[in-house]
Amino acid sequence: MTTKTAIDVLDERDKRLVAALQCDGRLPVERAATVLGISPRTVRRRWSALFADGTVSVVVAPRLPDGARVMLLRIRVLRGRLDAVTAALAARDDIPLIDVSAGGDEISAIALTGPGPRNRLVLEQLPATSAVTSVTAQTVLHVFREAADWRLDVLTARERAALTPRGRAGSPGVPDETDQLLLAALADDARASAASLAARTGLPDSTVRRRLTALTAHGALRTLVVVDPRRLGLAVDANVWLQVPPDHLDNVGRRLARHPAVHGALATTGQANLHAALWLPDLESLYRFTTEDLSGLGIQSADTVLVGTPVKRPGHLAYPNGPRPSSSRA
């Protein structure tokens, strides 16, 4: 059994060009051409086309606010009220990610909370909503892999190493006011040229170039390639909630983080204490992941939820004029 899609899948060359950007969002055309064995003219033309029609965009990877905590929410909703609840969540700045299940009755979301123990959204607002039948909230304890770490598995290890910038040892540190100005200017287009950034920020061109080099070298400028996974041939989007014994948790989390299908792996509080987000070609691949890749790891249970509509993700809002994840679409 396979999942069919009307989405046009990118050819192998374009997939490799997308994967190259995942290694370095500000990768120069000439460097990509040399490593991938493609002419600079072709690289420039194909990137321009992919950026122009919105197939691909490169943004600055979201940075967690100081003192913030991350919570995973599973919200069960009455079918007739799904749109209203999803739209209300999507409008909130503290909800950066929202998925609606293929069944159309569950919302998975990420919520950013303050350092205090009380969260009004979870404890008061959602439970008081008549459309919501249940809410499960789990705090993220450790991140094994996040979206900015995921790589499309179409490059060789040598190509990936050659395309990835070499960082310097040590902590990225806290960006100063000038760095924050540049990062804000890059937020929606992380490939903006130094000249355009200088014009937008009022900083000297030489300062912009020097700061960009330093931010990249110290890991403070992390980019995220935004692309519909279906265009990459990955038609199945799924969330898996795993129950793992404490003495196996770290090992299983690290193993999952190395899996090419896993674009998110998080250790959490709660009975299901490990969450994995997957992109796979078809349902048969999901079956193999569940029966083979998870086998022998000491996992006690796995709850798999297919995503019907990814409503809100970093760099992407499925419905700019308001979410419409109806059960028929799911």
Describe the protein's architecture and organization.
InterPro entries: AsnC-type_HTH_dom, Dimeric_a/b-barrel, Tscrpt_reg_AsnC-like, Tscrpt_reg_AsnC/Lrp_C, WH-like_DNA-bd_sf, WH_DNA-bd_sf. The protein has 330 residues and is of the alpha+beta class. The chain is 33% helix and 25% strand. It is built from eleven helices and eleven strands. The strands form two sheets. It has an eight-stranded antiparallel barrel with strand order 2-4-3-10-7-9-8-5. Strand 10 and strand 11 (316-317) form a beta hairpin.
Distance between the termini: 18 Å
The largest sheet has its strands arranged as 2-4-3-10-7-9-8-5
* Mean pLDDT over the residues: 88
Give the uncertain stretches in residue-range form. Answer: 1-5, 317-330
Largest sheet, in brief, is: 8 strands, antiparallel, barrel
Order of helices and strands: HHHEEHEEHEHHHHEEHEEHEE
DSSP strand count: 11
Structural shape: globular
C-alpha-based Rg, rounded: 21 Å
β-sheet strand percentage = 25-35%
Overall structural class, as computed from helix and strand content, comes to alpha+beta
Please tally the helical runs, counting DSSP H or I stretches of 4 or more residues: 11
Oligomer: single chain
| Proportion of helical residues | 25-40%
